[in-house]
Design a protein that fits this description.
Blueprint lengths: L1 H14 L6 H13 L9 H27 L11 E8 L5 E7 L2 E7 L4 E8 L21 H15 L1
Antiparallel strand pairs: 1-2, 2-3, 3-4
């Protein structure tokens, strides 16, 4: 019975255009019929590894978005009609923003629920930013990495 079934299966495969030789097909078909096929199973370890990998990737995405928002790496539309001159956090969700529209500066109070104009004045030249004093060991005043290294050395030296 097994050989007749194997021969029919081999004949069907050969007629269907299978590239295997008939002898190899017969040997493979009898092996399939004789032994049950092993089904790959996902154990708890595999599922835990996949879930933890997915959680790490999602956490990295949220961490990068938070850091970009926190460090101000969001793209500002320079050269547009409206320019943000300065922004200061007042509370956890409240800010005062100075916006330049044409030749006018507007001071705006921004909350999650509304935006309110606080003051308006003619546009002015921005004063130069105050430079931090350079201490020995700092790379350069304008170099952010040098400033960070200087602050790190100071904080480690105090402990």
């Amino acid at each position: 019975m097994k050989t007749a079934r194997s021969l029919w299966l081999a004949l069907l495969l050969a007629l269907a255009g299978a590239a295997l030789p008939v002898q190899a097909t017969i040997a493979a078909s009898t092996a399939v019929i004789d032994a049950p096929a092993a089904v790959p199973s996902w154990g708890a370890a595999g599922l835990l590894q996949a879930a933890s990998g997915l959680a790490v990737v999602i956490a990295l995405i949220f961490l990068c978005a938070w850091a970009a928002r926190r460090l101000g790496l969001q793209k500002h539309n320079s050269g547009r009609l409206v320019k943000i001159i300065a922004s200061t956090a007042i509370g956890q969700r409240e800010r005062v923003v100075v916006v330049e529209i044409g030749d006018t500066w507007l001071a705006l109070g921004v909350t999650p629920g509304q935006i309110q104009a606080l003051h308006s004045m003619p546009a002015q030249e921005l004063p130069p930013e105050p430079k931090l004093p350079i201490r020995q060991g700092a790379i350069a005043a304008g170099n952010a990495a040098g400033l960070f290294a200087q602050k790190l050395r100071e904080s480690l030296g105090k402990k």
